[in-house]
Amino acid sequence: MFVESKYQNKLKRYDINSYPAHVCKTSIPRLHMASSRSSSLTEMHRTRFINKIDKESLERGDHIYAYRKGGLYSHHGIFIGEDRVIHFVRTNEGNTSRRVEPCQKCGVDKNHLRGVVKSCVDCFLNGHSLRRYRYSASHRRFATNLGGTCTTGDADPPDVTISRAEDLFNTKDFGDYDLLKNNCETFAVFCKTGKHYYRKPI
Ligand SMILES: [Zn+2]
Fold this sequence. Notes:
Layout: H1 4-13, H2 28-33, H3 37-47, E1 63-68, E2 73-81, E3 84-89, E4 115-120, H4 121-125, E5 131-132, H5 139-144, H6 158-171, H7 184-193
Antiparallel strand pairs: 1-2, 1-5, 2-3, 3-4
Helix pairs in contact: 6-7
C-alpha cells in the first residue's frame, strides 16, 4: 500500500535537482516562453492538434491534459474510469470573482477546489479539448514536441497508476502546490511512473 513515508522517501530518492529529466519539458516553461507574444502565439498554433483525443478513446490510467487560457498553460490529471479524473490543483479552478454552483455530475465545488481532487471529466476539461500525454516517446519526438506533452520515460501499468492516484487522493499527501517543482503535471507523471521530477525553466 502506498503510504506517506513511502512517498516522502520517493521524493528524497528522486531529488528534484539531480533527477535526470527524462520527462519532456513541463508545462511551466510555457509560461516563461510566453514572455514573447509572437513566440507564444506560434506555440499555441503548433499545440492545437497535438495529442488530441475523443472521450470515447479514453482508457483507465491515462494521463490526460487540457490547455487553459488559450494555451498559455495546461492542466494534467489521471483518468481512473467511470468519468472520473484525479488531479492536483492549486486553488480554485473556476473564476474566483463569481460563485459557481457545485457540479451536478460529480458534486465538485469549484469554489473550494484545492490539492488532490477527484472530478468528472467535464469539470477537469473546463470546456477545453481532451489530450493524452505520451509515454515512451522516441527521442526524436521528445526533441521536437513542445513542453508538457510527452516523455521518453515508460509508464507503469494502469492499475498501478490508478492505485497511486487513489492513494494520493485519499491521503491528500502530495505536498504543497509549487508552480515549478510540484504541480499538476509532476503529479500525473508521478502517478504514471512513480518518479518525481523537476526541470528548471528554460
Ligand atoms: Zn463535475
